[in-house]
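Box 3.1 A note on notation
Throughout this textbook, protein chains are presented in two layers. The first layer is the amino acid sequence; the second is a token string describing backbone geometry. Keep the layers aligned when reading.
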Amino acid sequence: MMKTGAEILCECLIKEGVEVIFGYPGGALLPLYDTLPKYPELRHILVRHEQGAAHAADAYARVTGKLGVCLATSGPGATNLVTGIANAYLDSVPVLAMTGQVNTYFIGKDAFQEIDITGITVPITKYNQLVLDTGDMADAVREACHVAQTGRPGPVLLDLPKDVLQNKTEFIFPEKLDLPGYKPKLFGHPAQIKKAAELINSAEKPVIIAGRGVNVSRAFDELRELAENSQIPVVTTFLGIGCFPESHILSYGWLGMHGMGYANKAVHSSDLIIAIGMRFDDRATGGTSTFAPNARIIHIDIDAAEIGKNLPADVPIVGDVKNILQVLNKQLNKREHIIWLSQLDEWRSMHPATEIREHENVLPQYIIRQIYEVTKGDAIICTDVGQHQMWAGQYFYYDKPNSFVSSGGLGTMGFGLPAAIGAKVGRPNETVWCLCGDGGFQMTVQELATMVQENLNIKIAVFNNGWLGMVRQWQELIYSKRYSATALYNPDFVKIAEAYGIQAMRVTRKLDVSHAIQRAMEHDGPFLIEFVVEPEENVYPFVPPGKIIVEFLEEPSPATIRKK
């Protein structure tokens, strides 16, 4: 049957299981937007900025395990997606970005809103293609969707000229794929797995470091079996939060610059690191030359390029985490590490990372703990980037997989609000809380309109400290309090929310925090709470740049704080 390129695109997306597209229209995309109403199976959500579309698609993919899809027109529409595409790339999220392009006969002639978006996004996509012929549309969509979701997931991009969307051709869906240069390795080498088992069976002070790869592969049961049968403590990376229940007796929090001090000490003192689906990034390791100096390393990852990139591995295993752990677990002996675990528990009591001190002002940590108490931990937490992001990782306890949605590798301010939209669309029956600082919130505040238009019942906590808090903290602790360009003039966030038709309230007293959260939860619709918090509160623990991960700063005593 003869179909236009836009119809072929829609047909292919439906066959690929796509249900939602986050987008913003423009001239080059008019043939597609003219076609979308014919396909009610494809729900289009109109964002207010293309960056919001990319972040929403990103979060949708994280919480559902499905492909996230975003759409923008040519020129500035396409370039506005770039930050969101980069965010998905660094956090290994399967996102299909589609951009409009000028007619093929104008390409290369600097036509209105022409931009080489495929060239721009080469470093931040797994695959991208400028589709120059309508007859290539089906193959391009099929290949892009496959590449995005297999191997190490990541974003892909299709650039779609206007005439390619308009022209007609015979539509035949390509059931078979032929990508000879793309063969992700899914199963680890048996000899390497055997070596890993031997190391684990003989280790006295082993530690598992579980990363986002566990979430991606859904290897939750396999990780738990490994930890419990061999009695190995589990530390996660920041993006690995939730892959292992934090209430579990073998859970020792997350490591790194703002991770738990006892997690850092456990890793530093171990004799074996079992790194699963993580990449030894600088925020987790500090200086790599001093990281876990007495430990041998088993590194399991589906991306061979990550193994040996930052730290050498004694036993590298390339493949899908779930598949590898299923084989590995069968070769492990039941173990007990009573002395080792006792040492970790002692460190945990000596370096409590999640206690909240008394203070006359509202502390952000207290707010997050109260959100946990009111929700009983049954919520998806979407954060923006900054101090509140670290506190959200520390003071809310995550027992459910993929319930913590945050920008890790890129650290994108403005991520939180559109991410909450994507999460709520993906899991509409879940409670979704969006946690934002006063700086990041204003970067994508316009997405409040999307939330209202789509009638999304999202709860928003804005932490108003009047600063770009994390930058101010570094200026205080590392740059001798030379504050530069970090003080904020803020609007009335309550009035802004109300202008968008969202109920809102401001909280300035500690005794009102729990009531405000309960009120938000009871309201049937979006609700925003502006929390006016202690302006110069710092995130602890904190490993200063260039330090070993066990050289962390801890929260000063109350007496020291009063003397400031």
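The radius of gyration is 24 Å. The chain is about 35% helix and 15% strand.
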